Amino acid sequence: MELTKMTMKEISNYLENYKTVIIPVGATEEHSNALPLGTDSFTAEALAIEVGRISSRVVGPTISVGNCYSITYEFKGTISFSPKTLILVVFDYLQSLYKHGARRFLFVNGHGGNVAPIRCAIDTVAAEFKDSRFAVGSWWLFKELADLYDNAGHAGRGEVSMMLYLQPSFVHKEFFTEEKKTLPQYFVSNDKAFGEITTTGIINDSQEGSAELGEKLFKKSVEVYLNMLKALES
Ligand SMILES: [Zn+2]
Fold this sequence. Notes:
- This protein has a 4-stranded parallel sheet with strand order 2-1-3-4, sandwiched between helices.
- The mean pLDDT is 96.
- Helix content is 41%, strand content 9%.
- 43% of the residues are buried.
- By secondary structure, it is α/β, with parallel strands linked by helices.
- The protein has helices at residues 8-17, 39-55, 83-99, 115-126, 157-166, 190-196, 211-233; strands at residues 20-25, 58-59, 104-109, 133-138.
- It has one domain: Creatininase (Rossmann fold, 3-Layer(aba) Sandwich), CATH 3.40.50.
- Bound molecules: zinc ion (ZN).
- Zinc ion binds at residues 31, 39-40, 111, 154, 159.
């Protein structure tokens, strides 16, 4: 169930019986010339909706602009909140849900730059909220996926496969490429990212993916999120 498609009465009835809301967080960010800018948002949203469908839990509106302040900020099309803005967006989002009775919050995150701001927002509300629990899952980091792929880089095999499974018409295979750099053991400023990290917008991977792999990654990730949900509500 998607919150934006429910009425006031429906969400009110739901919150009397359940305290959980699933929150998809993505990004609007370059993903090379082969994948759409909304890749992280499409993936997070699809995962969240499937988890919500199976568990009969409500999915909140997708936060589809994330923190892309480093590296990909320089590439055309990327729209970014600053880290501190994203903290405030998540903070306000959580406060609204809490005010109306939600007490369990499962973040389905699709983008690396969101991990720290989401954590900061949770740390901030944790001091104020009562009787609440929070979980954050970033699918590409799940150790349960390790047998399926090797934690592929940005716009690489994992994301390509997810998009071939979820939104194949948005994938431009003719632009598949690879950029296998040895990533430095340090962070760089954005003027250095272009060149030291990537010149194609793909980071440290090839784009040889498949819809079959995408389906496996998707279904396994859903399983992991469902387990997180169970723990959150236990
Ligand atoms: Zn991505």
